[in-house]
C-alpha cells in the first residue's frame, strides 16, 4: 500500500524546559512499526537517538496550534513534535496513525489465549513488586499480551445481530465480575511488605481494567441505541450512523427551553431528560438580558466543601487518573470523577473573587496614583482566599458554552474606605443622573451596587469572560480567561491564560493584570491547592506597576502559600510598597514612609452576593443549569450527580456536532471578541464616553 511507505524528514522535537525545541531528523519505519529520530540526516546511518514502538500508540494533534502533535507510546514515553505547517502535520499524523493501526491489529491477531497469559496474584505473593520483576526488554508486544482474547484462527467476526446483544451482555457481566474480583484481591493485600495494595503497577492494573470496562459499557450502550433505532424503522442501504443518540431538529434547536422527550430516554429521571433536551440558545435567542439588581436577593447558599479523604477512601481518583493521564497531557477533554467537584460553576468562582466589594470600590477613592495602585494590589491579593473556598483541591463545574452567571453586591457607603480630600464630585450632577437609568430616583441611597456578569464564550478552547462594574463610582473590570490544565505527575497544573483590565473612569486610568497558575498537589493522597507564578499589574498613564510572585513550596522546607511583591514607580524605579505573607492567611504591607499594615484574611468580612431566585433564572444560568448535579452532591449521591453531569455534557457535544453539520456559528450573548480577547458588549467606559459626548454637543 502507498500509505504504508516509509517517510522521513525534519521535525521540531520538544526536549525540556532548558533546551526547548530542537530540529531532529525523523524516520517512520513502517515494516518494524517504529518512529526513529537522528540528530540530522547525515547521521541516519548511525544508531537512532531515540525510538518509539508505535503498536498501541496514540497519535494526537495538539490544540495549542495547527503545527504541533504528540506521539504517546504504550510504554508511557511521549514525543511532542512540531511540523512546519498544518499540511505537513496532517501528513505525518495520518501516516503515523495508519502504521499504528496496522501494527496494533497485528499484535491482537498473534496474541496467545488469555488462559496461558493470565495474571495471578497468588504467584506473586512472596515476590517483589511486578515493576521490579519486569524485564528490561519488555516491549509493546509483551505489554499487549496480558488481558487479550484471541479469536479462533480463520474465523471472521460476524456482523452483530440484535439477538446477540443478550449474549454480549452476559459475557460483559462475567467480565465485570472478574474485574471486581481482581479489585478485591488487590485491595486485600497488606499495606506494607514486598507486594502491597498501593504498589504502583497494581494501581495501574486496577486503573486500566476499570477504564477498559467503562469503554466496553459505552460501546455496548451504542449497540443498544443502534438496535433501538433499527426497531423504529429500517435504515436506507448505505446509511452510516456516526452517532447513535437522538438528534434535535434544527427548528427546535433554536427554541430556548424546548423540551424533547425521546422514547429511548424513558427510563432516565425526568431531570436528566430535561438536561439532555433543553437546547442551547443561539442566534435567534441571544438577546442581551439586563438583570435588575432589585430582583436579586441575598444569597443564603453556603456549600462548604467536605474533605476528599485519604487515598484508601477515594480510590477512584487514582483509578481514573492512572488510566487516562500521561505526563504533560492536556486535561481539557478529560472527564474527572464527579466526587472531586465543587458545588459551583467556574463562572461563579470568578464571581467569588469579588467577595470584598468594599476593597474594590475603595481603589478609586485613593487620592494619588500611588495610593490607587497600592489599593488595587491589596484588593487583588485578598480576592483569592474567598475565591478558592479553602485549601481543598476540588474542581468547579466546567461551564458549557453559553452558560452565564449574574449576581451583585450592595455595599454600605459608610463601610468603604475614603480619604480626606477625596473628590467624589468630579462629575456634574446632570452627568451622574444621565449615566445610567439604575441611578434615577436613587441618588439618596446609602449603598453602592457592584454588578457582575460572566459567560462561557468558547468551549474549545475553554474561555470565560467576566465583567463587573460600580456605576456610582464609575469603575469597572473586564477579563477573559482560558483555563489550560496539564497533568504533572503527582499534581495537576492549571494556567490562567488571559488578561484583565480595571478602568477607573474618574481618574482616566486603566490597570492591566494577569492571574497566577493553580496547582492541585498530592493528588494520590489528600489533594490541596497551591498558587504559583509571577503576575504583573501595570498602569501606563501613571507609570506605576506591581510585580507579585506566588511561591510554590520547595521540595524540602519552606512555607506554604507564600507570596511576595512590590509596587514601584517605573520612571524613577522607586519601590513605594512591599508585600509579603500568605495569600490565604496574613499579608504584611510595608510602605516607603516606614509604616506597616497587616491584613488577616481569615478575619476579613465577606459580603454575600445577591442572586435571583432559582425559579426566576434562565435555563442557562449556572445555578439553574447545574441544579440537579448540585442537589445530588449535597445529598451525597455521587452516582446520580454523575448521571446528571453526563447528560449535560452529552447535550453539549450533540449540539456542537449539529452546529458543525449545519455550519451554524455560535453567537455569544454578552461578550464580543476584540482581537485576542473578549469584551463586555456594554462596558461602562463606552457609556461614560457617550454621556460626555452628549453633554459636549448640548453645550
From TrEMBL:
Domain PH: from-to ranges: 4-101
Catalytic activity from the UniProt record: a 1,2-diacyl-sn-glycero-3-phospho-(1D-myo-inositol 4-phosphate)(out) + a 1,2-diacyl-sn-glycero-3-phospho-L-serine(in) = a 1,2-diacyl-sn-glycero-3-phospho-(1D-myo-inositol 4-phosphate)(in) + a 1,2-diacyl-sn-glycero-3-phospho-L-serine(out)
CC annotations in GO: cytosol; Golgi apparatus; late endosome membrane
Descriptive protein name: Oxysterol-binding protein
Entry keyword Transport: yes
Entry-linked SUPFAM superfamilies: Oxysterol-binding protein-like, PH domain-like
Coiled coil: none
Stretches with biased composition (Polar residues): 117-136
Homology family: Belongs to the OSBP family.
Lineage top rank: taxon: Eukaryota
Chief location of this protein within or outside the cell: Golgi
Amino acid at each position: 500500500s502507498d500509505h504504508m511507505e516509509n517517510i522521513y524528514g525534519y521535525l521540531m522535537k520538544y526536549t525540556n524546559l532548558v533546551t526547548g525545541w530542537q530540529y531532529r531528523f525523523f524516520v517512520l519505519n513502517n515494516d518494524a512499526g517504529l518512529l526513529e529520530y537522528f540528530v540530522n540526516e547525515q547521521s541516519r546511518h548511525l544508531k537512532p537517538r531515540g525510538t518509539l514502538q508505535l503498536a498501541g500508540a496514540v497519535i494526537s494533534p495538539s490544540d495549542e496550534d495547527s503545527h504541533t502533535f504528540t506521539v504517546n507510546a504504550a510504554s508511557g514515553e511521549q514525543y511532542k513534535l512540531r511540523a512546519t505547517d498544518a499540511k505537513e502535520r496532517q501528513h505525518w499524523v495520518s501516516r503515523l496513525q495508519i502504521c499504528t493501526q496496522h501494527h496494533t491489529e497485528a499484535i491482537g491477531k498473534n496474541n496467545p489465549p488469555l488462559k496461558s497469559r493470565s495474571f495471578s496474584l497468588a504467584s506473586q505473593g512472596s515476590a517483589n513488586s511486578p515493576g521490579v520483576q519486569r524485564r528490561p526488554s519488555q516491549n509493546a508486544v509483551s505489554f499487549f499480551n496480558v488481558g487479550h482474547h484471541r479469536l479462533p484462527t480463520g474465523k471472521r467476526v460476524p456482523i452483530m445481530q440484535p439477538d446477540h446483544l443478550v449474549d454480549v451482555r452476559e459475557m460483559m457481566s462475567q467480565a465485570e465480575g472478574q474485574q471486581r474480583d481482581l479489585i478485591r484481591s488487590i485491595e486485600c493485600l497488606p499495606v506494607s511488605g514486598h507486594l502491597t495494595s498501593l504498589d504502583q503497577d497494581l494501581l495501574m492494573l486496577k486503573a486500566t481494567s476499570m477504564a477498559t470496562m467503562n469503554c466496553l459499557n459505552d460501546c455496548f450502550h451504542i449497540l443498544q441505541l443502534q438496535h433501538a433505532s433499527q426497531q423504529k424503522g429500517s435504515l436506507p442501504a448505505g446509511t452510516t450512523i456516526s452517532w447513535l443518540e437522538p438528534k434535535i431538529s434544527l427548528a427546535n434547536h433554536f427554541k430556548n427551553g424546548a423540551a424533547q422527550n425521546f422514547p429511548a430516554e424513558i427510563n432516565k429521571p425526568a431531570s436528566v431528560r430535561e438536561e439532555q433536551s433543553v437546547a442551547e440558545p443561539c442566534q435567534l435567542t441571544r438577546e442581551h438580558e439586563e438583570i435588575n439588581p432589585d430582583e436579586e436577593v441575598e444569597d443564603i447558599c453556603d456549600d462548604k466543601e467536605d474533605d476528599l479523604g485519604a487515598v484508601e477512601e477515594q480510590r477512584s481518583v487514582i483509578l481514573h487518573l492512572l488510566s487516562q493521564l500521561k505526563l504533560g497531557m492536556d486535561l481539557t477533554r478529560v472527564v474527572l470523577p464527579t466526587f472531586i467537584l465543587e458545588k459551583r460553576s467556574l463562572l461563579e468562582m470568578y464571581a467569588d473573587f469579588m467577595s470584598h466589594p468594599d476593597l474594590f470600590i475603595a481603589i478609586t477613592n485613593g487620592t494619588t496614583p500611588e495610593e490607587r495602585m497600592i489599593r488595587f494590589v491589596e484588593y487583588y491579593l485578598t480576592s483569592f482566599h474567598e475565591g478558592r473556598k479553602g485549601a481543598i483541591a476540588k474542581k468547579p463545574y466546567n461551564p458549557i458554552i453559553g452558560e452565564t452567571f449574574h449576581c451583585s453586591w450592595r455595599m454600605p457607603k459608610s463601610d468603604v474606605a475614603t480619604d480626606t480630600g477625596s473628590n467624589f464630585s468630579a462629575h456634574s450632577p446632570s452627568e451622574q443622573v444621565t449615566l445610567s437609568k439604575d441611578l434615577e430616583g436613587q441618588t439618596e441611597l446609602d449603598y453602592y451596587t457592584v454588578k457582575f456578569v460572566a459567560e462561557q464564550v468558547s468551549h474549545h478552547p475553554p474561555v470565560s469572560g467576566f465583567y463587573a462594574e460600580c456605576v456610582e463610582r464609575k469603575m469597572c473590570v473586564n477579563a477573559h480567561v482560558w483555563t489550560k490544565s496539564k497533568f504533572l505527575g503527582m499534581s495537576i497544573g492549571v494556567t490562567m491564560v488571559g488578561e484583565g483590565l480595571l478602568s477607573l473612569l474618574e481618574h482616566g486610568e486603566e490597570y492591566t493584570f494577569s492571574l497566577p497558575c493553580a496547582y492541585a498537589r498530592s493528588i494520590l493522597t489528600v489533594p490541596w491547592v497551591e498558587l504559583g507564578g509571577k503576575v504583573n499589574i501595570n498602569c501606563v498613564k501613571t507609570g506605576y506597576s506591581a510585580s507579585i510572585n506566588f511561591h510554590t513550596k520547595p521540595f524540602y522546607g519552606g512555607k506554604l502559600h507564600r507570596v511576595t511583591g512590590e509596587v514601584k514607580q517605573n520612571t524613577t524605579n522607586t519601590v513605594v510598597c512591599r508585600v509579603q505573607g500568605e495569600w490565604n492567611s496574613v499579608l504584611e504591607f510595608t510602605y516607603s514612609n516606614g509604616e506597616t499594615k497587616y491584613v488577616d484574611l481569615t478575619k476579613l468580612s465577606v459580603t454575600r452576593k445577591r442572586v435571583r431566585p432559582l425559579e426566576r433564572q434562565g435555563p442557562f444560568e449556572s445555578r439553574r443549569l447545574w441544579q440537579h448535579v448540585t442537589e445530588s452532591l449535597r445529598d451525597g449521591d455521587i452516582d446520580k450527580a454523575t448521571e446528571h453531569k453526563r447528560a449535560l455534557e452529552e447535550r453539549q457535544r450533540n449540539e456542537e456536532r449539529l452546529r458543525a453539520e449545519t455550519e451554524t456559528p455560535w453567537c455569544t450573548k454578552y461578550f464580543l471578541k476584540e482581537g485576542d480577547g473578549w469584551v463586555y458588549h456594554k462596558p461602562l467606559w463606552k457609556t461614560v464616553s457617550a454621556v460626555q459626548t452628549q453633554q459636549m454637543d448640548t453645550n
